[in-house]
Automatic annotation (TrEMBL):
GO terms for biological process: methylation. It catalyses: precorrin-2 + S-adenosyl-L-methionine = precorrin-3A + S-adenosyl-L-homocysteine + H(+). It is an enzyme of class 2 (transferase). The keyword Transferase applies. One of its GO terms (molecular function) is precorrin-2 C20-methyltransferase activity. Homodimer. This is Precorrin-2 C(20)-methyltransferase. Its EC number is 2.1.1.130. Residues 9-223 form the Tetrapyrrole methylase domain. PANTHER family: COBALT-PRECORRIN-2 C(20)-METHYLTRANSFERASE. It comes from Herbaspirillum rhizosphaerae. It holds the Pfam family TP_methylase. The gene is cobI. Belongs to the precorrin methyltransferase family.
Length: 252
């Protein structure tokens, strides 16, 4: 640490996903105080979705530090990437600068922030930090679609999409509701499975909520996946799967 400097504050902040303004007031105050704001961007994307979720919030460009992420399947490559990023952030904190790290959705729900925080704790066993909870993609999707995530004693499973239809079908059959995340390129067979099971009309789909290219669907029977202009992609998407129709308890 540079002599005379107290370590800087580190904040983890979830932004979006959804319309502008999905940001807790306390997190907004921290964002305004931060000397530096680390903003993740997928290598395949031209702009950072996290930054897009801050639309309407004035942030001086010189405070931004864009971080390019390549979600390489090689865990060693990812490990090196997170370790290097944590070292960069730790150096800023040790120099007395406050740092905010943005992530899409909730900070600790299937988020890169969890890896960064763990790596920072290894480098700096004691440092001032605070993590703000954010809005999960499935909570945002449910709100956009008026889709209850659980009624009465229904059991809800939050699940990264399995790699095969049989595994997903088993989870659907053993739970009342399945929140399916990280769908990606698996979307075509997921849609086919739901239609084959006869439950597509009870399921919902949300992609790029509040952003350009938003897709919201409360009935998946007509939804198509693929590369054609009228088809949708499974990236930045969340699927809400209900095994049976929603019970209308207000009716006799």
């Amino acid at each position: 640490m540079i002599a005379g400097n107290e370590p800087g504050m580190f904040w983890g902040i979830g932004v979006g996903p959804g319309p502008a303004g999905y940001l807790p007031l306390a997190a907004m105050q921290a964002l305004q105080k931060a000397d530096l704001i680390y903003v993740p961007r997928a290598r395949s994307a031209d702009t950072s979705v996290a930054l897009q979720c801050l639309e309407g919030v004035a942030v001086a460009p010189e405070r931004l530090r864009e971080v390019e992420f390549n979600m390489d399947p090689d865990r060693n490559v990812l490990r090196e990437h997170y370790a290097q990023l944590a070292q960069d952030i730790a150096a800023e904190l040790q120099a007395g600068r406050s740092v905010a790290y943005l992530t899409i959705g909730d900070t600790l729900t299937y988020s890169t922030y969890g890896y960064i925080l763990a790596a920072l704790k290894d480098l700096l066993p004691v440092f001032p930090h605070r993590t703000f909870p954010g809005i999960t993609s499935y909570a945002s999707a449910a709100a956009a679609l008026d889709w209850p995530l659980g009624v009465g004693k229904e059991r809800t499973l939050i699940l990264p999409c399995p790699d095969d239809p049989a595994s997903l079908q088993h989870e659907i059959e053993t739970h009342d509701i399945v929140v399916l995340m990280k769908v990606g390129a698996r979307l075509p067979w997921v849609l086919a499975l739901l239609k084959e099971m006869g439950i597509a009309e009870h399921c919902a789909f949300a992609r790029r909520i509040g952003l350009d290219g938003e897709v919201l669907a409360n009935d998946l029977r007509e939804l198509e996946a693929g590369d054609r202009d009228h088809a949708v992609s499974g990236y930045l998407a969340t699927m809400l799967i209900r095994k049976t129709a929603l019970e209308k308890r207000h009716q006799a």
